[in-house]
Amino acid sequence: MYDRIVVAVDSSAEAAHAARTGFVLAQALSVPIDVVTVLEASILDALRSGAGRDRLRSDREQLLADIETQAEDVRISSTLLEGRPADRIVEFALDSGTNPLVVLGRQGRSSVSRRLLGGVTEGVLERGDIPVLVDPGPGEDESDFDPSRILVPTDGSENADIALPHVAALASQFDASVTVLSVVDLQRAGGVFNAGGLDGEFIEALESRAETATEAAAETVQATEPNLSVESMVRRSKDFEGVSGAICETAAAENVDLVVMGSHGRSNVRRQLLGSVTSTVLRSIDVPTLVVPRSQS
């Protein structure tokens, strides 16, 4: 599935944890790993003295060297890049292998504790050229990446189902079980001002379509890797959190430790850089999430 792992780092704790996740993946998949860090051109331009630029480059080279020392039993190389971080990371990854996987930390929170996607992470995702694993950083137990239960949301669309080959490959490699989830969003189906509720037959039709989507996706994963444990699940969402809220709630309730999803679903039009459901999940969920772009189809 992947022939190279590319991890982009800075000096944050989230990036350090993402690097550890990358090491685990590289070792499990028996592929090389590249660790990169990017010096923004604007920062270099702002430093008037050559000595200041040299000191900054030296600091980043030391960061790469320190991270390299943490890698065990993997083929690793490190590279200092310059330019616009999101563009340089994607360009490097595409040049490094035929089927690379980028691993990034999610980064940061706002002053009101709402989770944010770091600007670099969001920029790489919005390029939509390459699968990206977003690591939310160390949890309470600070355990390393070792997925035993994988959740894959689907709405039955081609955009959503491009994630299925990635699910099958990772579940097989890590001997993980798979849960295929479809969410029936009653709030969206009925409209914001729907005070009378939804007709029972209409809800049944929605749930039937969701069951068909999950069963088809589960069969696809099972056909790819017959020895996997695969189940399908349908959940209702009645509040304003919608599909993304139901995905995060299911992940927590089912002790999921990896989510794999397409960058867009049925409702996301071509002009959108990153689907609204995927974007919200990335900001809210507490487990690593692999986002597979539409270009993978």
Automatic annotation (TrEMBL):
Residues of the UspA domain: 1-134, 149-293
Pfam families: Usp
InterPro entries: Rossmann-like_a/b/a_fold, Universal_stress_UspA, UspA
Domain of life: Archaea
CDD domains reported in the protein's UniProt record: USP-like (cd00293)
Family: Belongs to the universal stress protein A family.
Stated name of the protein: Universal stress protein UspA
Biological classification of the source: Archaea, Methanobacteriati, Methanobacteriota, Stenosarchaea group, Halobacteria
